[in-house]
Amino acid sequence: MEGLTYTPPSMLKKVFREGERSLSRQELQDRLQNTYGTRLEAMNVTAEHVIDRAVEDGTSPFHEGSSHAVIEMERIPRDHIAEEMVRYFLENKAPLTEDQCLKKLRRLNLISYSFPASKLPLHKDPRFVQLEGSDLWYLARWSPANDKLYDFIVARQLKQFPLAQLYMIMEHELGMSRREFVFVPEGDERFRVIEGLVIVSYTEEEMQSIEAAAVSAEEQHLLPIKSHEEEVAVTMANDVKTASVFEDTLRNAQDSVEKLQTRIKEMEEEVLDQFKVNNLAAISQLVGEKEKCESIVRALENVMGLVNNG
User: Count of domains in the chain?
Assistant: First the structure.
């Protein structure tokens, strides 16, 4: 996700490892470059610039050590408020604002109504990170799920759907636990969320590829049908001299049509059932099977029409 941009303090939080309290500037620069190099180039900033901004931010836990060459992170004691906030983030399975955190802590009687947002552990505690230009906070442990989600959505040519369905895709279709992964719409031009609806933006190249794939699939779909019709018609034309074979063929074709039509009705009901549980994989499979059955029915009906006219 090249569009994802953490604040400078959050970038440092992400590259400091658990238990570390100080790093040389050079080591910190190397880690930032390895982790965010592509994004830093796109922003036209250096790792050194990120470090300086984090140190200059009065709300961050970072400062220079005994010399300019060392960057230290404050040791933040983990109290019951910080632990409750981590639990709340995990329960919510999505980012939260400072105001939402304050309201939750007040409902639990852990803080008073005069407790200021500046005292929340969000800025100092390395377990919380923030994106540039956003008032939302995320857990540092979360990894963005956007790339895998986008690949899944493009493969199925979806354009918009409820946000709740996207979370279903993450957990049930892609097997991505929301304790470890998160959907991050900020800074990702591929997604927009408007009143609970996810709108997906395709590039022009992707749209052309999707349209070409659709045309190719339709052409391939029609060719087997035509080939099947011709093959069956030729076979039946050769057998039409024998009345018993002719009658048996028509009877078998009619029986096949009736069985297929019964199966088509069953699948229509099954599709509705799968929509209720947002099982996209099952829906896709059922729709494909239904279309195949409908194509065979049309082919058989055409064959029977050819035989009767003959």
Answer: 4
- Both 189 and 137 in one domain: the answer is no
DSSP letter assigned to residue 62: E
Pick from 26, 43, 73: which residue ends a domain? 73
Q: Is residue 3 part of a domain?
A: no
pLDDT digits (tens, 9 = 90+) for 243-278: 556 666 777 888 788 888 888 888 888 877 777 777
Residue 274, in any domain of the structure:
yes
**How many whole angstroms separate alpha carbon 120 and alpha carbon 58?**
14
Contact 100, 107 (CB under 8 A): no
Q: Could you report the per-residue pLDDT of 212-244, keeping only the tens digit for each?
A: 655 554 556 555 765 565 565 455 445 445 555
The DSSP bridge partners found for residue 72 are: 22, 63
CA geometry: angle at 201 spanning 133 and 40, to 5°?
40
Q: Is 178 helix (H, G, I), strand (E, B) or coil?
A: coil
Range of 166's domain?
144-201
Contact by Cβ (8 Å): 121, 85 = yes
